[in-house]
Amino acid sequence: MASGRVLVVGSLNADLVVRTARIPGPGETVAGSDLVIVPGGKSSNQAAAVGKLGGDVAMLGCVGDDGNGAMLVKSLENAGVDVSQVRALEGVSTGSAMIAVDDAGENCIIVSPGANGRLSADDVNAAADFFATADSSSVLTLCLEVSLDAVKAAARNARERGAKVVLNISPYMKVGADLLDLVDILLVNNHELADLTGQAEFDPLGDWTSVIEATDAALGASGPRTVVVTLGAQGARIIDLDAGTASQQIPSPKVKPVDTTGCGDAFLAAFSFRIAAGDDLEQAAAFAVRVGAYAATGEGAQNSYPTAEQLASWTP
Ligand code: RIB
User: Is pLDDT at 2 greater than 80 in this prediction?
Assistant: First the structure.
C-alpha cells in the first residue's frame, strides 16, 4: 500500500562527535578520539530515516551557506528526501551539535542553533507549496530545535490540510496549550516524560496509573490524547489518555549498542512513516522499535539508519 507523505519541519545540525571511554562530569577533562563531523539534527535525522526506509518525505528548514550545510543537504538528497524547502542562508553558520559518545554507546549532546534559529513562522507560512502536498494521509513531525513560533505555524498549516501532527518535546521545554492543542500524538522518552509529569521515579514496565494521571494533568483536556513513550533498550509504551490506559511494553530487539545518537529520531521517523501508511499505533511502534534498535548498532545518526532492504534482512 502506498503511504502518505511525511513532512518534516525543523532542524538540521552538523554533529561534531568525539568518542570517549566515559562522559565527563562537571569540571572534568577526559581524553577522546579524533573529531568526526557527520549529518545530524533531530528533524533532518527524521527526514533521512523516512527517506531511507522508502517513504515519501519532504523537509523544510534552514542551513548556513557553508560546508556543513552542503553536507546536510547532500545527506538528505542521498536518502531520497525532497529538499526543495531547505534554504541555505547567506552569512549564517549551519546549526551544530557537540556530541560525546561513551563506550556503552550512550551520548550527551549540546545543540547550537545557527541557521535553525532563523527559521521563522513567516518562513513556514510562506511555504504554501510544501504544505499543499499534504492531505489526511500525511504526518508532520516536529521537535523543539527551532522556534516555538515556527513549530506552531507548521502544525497549523499541516492541520489545515488534515495531516496528523506528531511532536517530540525535545530538547525538553515547557510548552503551552497554544502548541499542544495543535498536536495529535506526543512522543517523549523516559527523561522527557519525567520532565513533563514531574515524576522522576517511575517503573518503565510497571503500573503507570499515576504516570497517566500526571500526563493527563500536564497536557490538559484539549492537548494530544496519545503519548508514545520510548524507553531505550526496553522498547516503548503508548498512553491512551481518553481510555486512561497504557499499553503493555512493546519490546525492542536486543542489540549491543555502538552509538545511540539519533535512535529516538529513527523511532519517531519509522513510527510516523507507518502511521502515514495506515498502521495502527501499536503496529507502527512495533516497527519503530526495530528501526531504533538497528540505528543503535552503527556510528552516528543518519549514517546508522537502515534502508527497507537492510531492515528486512536484519537479524538482531
Ligand atoms: O537526536 C540526535 C540529534 O540531536 C543529533 O543528531 C544532534 O544534532 C541533536 O540535534
Answer: no
Of 75, 109, 141, 299, the residue with max ligand 1 atoms within 8 A of its CB, to mutate for a pocket test, comes to: 109
pLDDT at 215 exceeding the cut of 70? yes
Please name the residues in contact with 190: beta carbons below 8 A apart, sequence gap of 6 or more: 202, 204, 229, 230, 231, 232
Enter the DSSP assignment of 287.
H
Select from 24, 6, 121, 114 the least CA-distant residue to 62.
114
The phi, psi pair for 214, rounded to 5°, reads -70, -35
* Antiparallel, parallel or unpaired: β 82-89 and 95-101: unpaired
pTM: 0.97
Other Cβ atoms within 10 Å of 26 Cβ, number: 4
Our CA angle for 152, 221, 173, nearest 5°, is: 45
